[in-house]
Amino acid sequence: MANTFSVFKKMNFTRMFLAAFTSRMGSVIGMTAFSFYLLDRFSEQPFYVSLTEMMYSLPTLVVFFIVGVLADRMDRQKIAANCEWINAGLSLIIIVTIMVGWMPLIFFLLFLRSAVSKFFFPAEQALVQGILSEKEYTTAAGLNQMMSSLFMLFGSGLGIVAYWMVGVEGALLIDGISYIVSGLLILFCKIERDVRLPNGMNKWTDLKPKMMISDFVSGLLYSIRHRLLFALIIGFFVLGIVNGAISVSTMFILKYKLAPVTYEHWSIWEGIVFGLGMIIGSIFASAIAEKFKIYHLLAAGLLISGIFIGAIAFADTLLVYLVFVFLAALFLPLANIAIGGWMPKIVDPKMMGRVEGIINPLMMVSQTLTLAGISVFYPSVLSIEGLFFVVGAIIVLIALYYTLVLPRLADRFDHIQKNEATQIGKV
Fold it and tell me: Is the link from the previous residue into 379 a cis peptide, with omega within 30 of 0?
C-alpha cells in the first residue's frame, strides 16, 4: 500500500489528481442538487430530470471527433485548465438563470457545460501519461478507481446535504469554486513542453475542418491497427454494455421481483453495497497490481464479476442479491485498473488524446445500444433473470477471449518495443 501512495511524491501528479478530485466533487454536488431541485419544483414534470441526463450525454455525439484532436494538437495543459474555468463561469451563469427561471436557457447551458467537459478528460489523461513513468501507470489507475468508488458511495449524499443546507444556488456555487480550484491546480503544474505539445506548436488558425477530420481518422485507424490496443478498446465497449444493463436491470429486479413495495429504499442500500465493494476491490487490486501480469488481472476481474452478475438471476432474497452485488463490485476494479494502467503504456503519447477521444463515445454507443435492446426484448423475450444471464455471459465470454489472445498480443507488443529500442540504441 505504501507503494500505491508513493506516486504522490511527484508534485505534478499530486496537483493533477487533486484537480480531478475537486472538479468531480463539485460537479457531483452541483448536478445532484440540481436534479433534486427539479424534482421539488417540477414534481409533476419528471421528464425534466430525464432531459437533464440527456444534456450530459448528448454533447458526446457533437464533439467526439474534435476533443481528441485538440488534445494532441494544442497545449494540453491550457486545454485542461481552460475547460475548468469556462465551466466555472457557466456554473455562475446557471445560478443567475435559475433565479430568473428560464428553463430552456438552463438546459442549453447544461448542454454547453457538458460539451466543454468532454475536452477535459483526453487532455488530462494525456498529461498524466507524460508525468508518470510506465511503472506508475497502474498505480495511478488504482488511485483513480478509488476516487471513482468514493464518489459512487458518497457523491449523491454530498449533493443532497448541500441542497438541504445551501439550496441549489449554493450547491452550484460550490460547483463553480471547485472548477476554479481545479483549473489553478492544473496551471501550477510544471510540465515539460514535449508532454504539453507532443506534436509541436499549432495555432487555432491551423485547425481546418479537413485537417481535424484527417486527424480523427488517423486516430481511429491507429486504434484499429494496433492489435493490443484494439483488444483493450473492446473491453471498454463491454464496460459500456455492463453500465447500460446494470443501470436498469438492478432497478427491475428490485421492483418486479425482490422488493416491489420498498424498491426505492433498497436501491439506496444497493448503491451503498456496490460502492463499498468497489472501494474495497480498488484497494485490493492496487495492492496486488504489480505482482501479476496486467492481462491476468483484466481477464480474472471480468471473469469473476461476470459470474457473480449472472448469479444474481438466482437471487430469491434481498440478502442474497446484495451479497452477489457486493462480490461483483469487489472484483470489477481488477479489470478497470488493468485497462487504465495498460493504456498509457501501449499508446504513443502523440496519439493519446485521439485514442481517449474515441473511447468515451464508444462506451456511450454500447451503453445506448444495450438500453435499446433491453427496451425491445424485456419482458417480452427476456425475463429479469434472463437479463442478468445474458450480461454475465457476455462478460465471461470476453474474459475467456482475453485469456486466449492477450498473452500473445502482449508478448508481440513487447517484442516489437524491444526491437525498436535496440535499433535506436544502434543508431
Answer: yes
